[in-house]
Amino acid sequence: MIKSIVVDDVWPNLEEIQDLVNATGFIQVEKTYENPLEALAEIESSQAQVAFIDIDMPKMDGIELGERLLEINPALQIVFITAFNRYALQAFEINALDYILKPINTDRFKKMIEKIRKAVENKAPDSTADLKIKCFDLLEVRIGDTDVKWERSKAQELFAFLLMHHGEKLNRDTIIEQLWPDYLPQKATPILQTSISKIRQIFAPLKKGQVLLEYSAGGYYCLTIKGGECDYFEMEKALDGFREGDSVTYAALEKAAATFKKGFLAQNAYLWTLPKDDELKGRLQQALTYLTEVYASAGDNKGLIRALESLLSLMPYDEKNNNRLLEAYADTNNWVGITSHFQWLKKVLKEEYATAPFPSTEELFFKLISLKISNPAPK
């Protein structure tokens, strides 16, 4: 049986809804409340999976109650049953499953009950599942061993946008302007609402509070993620923690740099990612350039090679650093590295920049190879 609660400040309404719900045979009303504050206080102990809520109530209106209940239990299904249709937009903004009007129409009630059945059956809570989010190159999200299936491309894009601004309150209009500027408001708003609902549905099985998408008055949304793995968060942490002269911070920076690849959500091709990509790339370049000088001054060729490889993955057209890397490979007798890097460089410059290595780099490559040929390693 699916457990539910009913909240309505009018006692006859409570009795009517309770009777209709219990008559379904698979949803059971565990408790009814005339006072919304009591329902809020007892939501955890009730273990309710569904809440049927009136909106126009004293002490706390139904919209606020729904928001507060979802903060405690994000997997809770909210159904508003009210005499007013003017709250429908607010209801769906907080991810209500349904919104029906009083007096209750029997056929409409049955459709709502079927939505509840499907929604609850489709949830498979697994609070022990690991969350892994990859943002560089292509957005990939895994819960446990399963890749998230977004089904809606707009929901995926919205999640990526909120993730980029994690912890920030974003106005609904700002989100629409950034993501879907060509859509009229009357079309964009339902897309936003549907996408919000999909995101909440995807992450509801995780343990409470791990992925929280909150809505606040004035039309603001905020995504917070606690726990799990996210390469974007690790990148921010490494860049924020990097300190010149503090060798303890170097390893984290190099590890983060290795994940950057083609860039922040590069293969998703969202135009709004470009400023963030430029920002991250610029900060990485500055830090890695500093590291090349540190390792060069210390005579640490292995460290220098690592830093140069990461730096050139960001800016392969850099003449000076390509030459430095070839020389560093030669200093460590890494002839395979010399050849591999030069072949990689030619390919990348041709395919991505429609150009070729600088003459000085090509001359240095052939000079080093000829030295290797004329001075083979002793047998």
Plain-language structure description:
- The protein has 379 residues and is α/β, with parallel strands linked by helices.
- It has three domains: 120 residues, Rossmann fold; 95 residues, Arc Repressor Mutant, subunit A (Orthogonal Bundle); 140 residues, Alpha Horseshoe (Serine Threonine Protein Phosphatase 5, Tetratricopeptide repeat), CATH 1.25.40.
- Helix content is 54%, strand content 14%.
- It has a five-stranded parallel beta sheet with strand order 2-1-3-4-5, with helices on both faces. It has a four-stranded mixed beta sheet with strand order 8-7-6-12.
- α1 links the parallel β1 and β2.
- The longest helix has 24 residues.
- It is elongated, with a radius of gyration of 28 Å.
- The mean pLDDT is 90.
List the helices and strands and how they pair.
Blueprint: E1 2-7, H1 11-22, E2 27-33, H2 36-46, E3 50-53, H3 62-72, E4 77-82, H4 88-93, E5 98-101, H5 106-121, E6 131-134, E7 140-143, E8 146-147, H6 153-164, E9 170-171, H7 172-179, H8 185-203, E10 211-216, E11 220-225, E12 229-230, H9 231-241, H10 250-260, H11 274-297, H12 301-314, H13 319-331, H14 335-353, H15 359-374
Helix pairs in contact: 2-3, 6-8, 9-10, 10-11, 10-12, 11-12, 12-13, 13-14, 13-15, 14-15
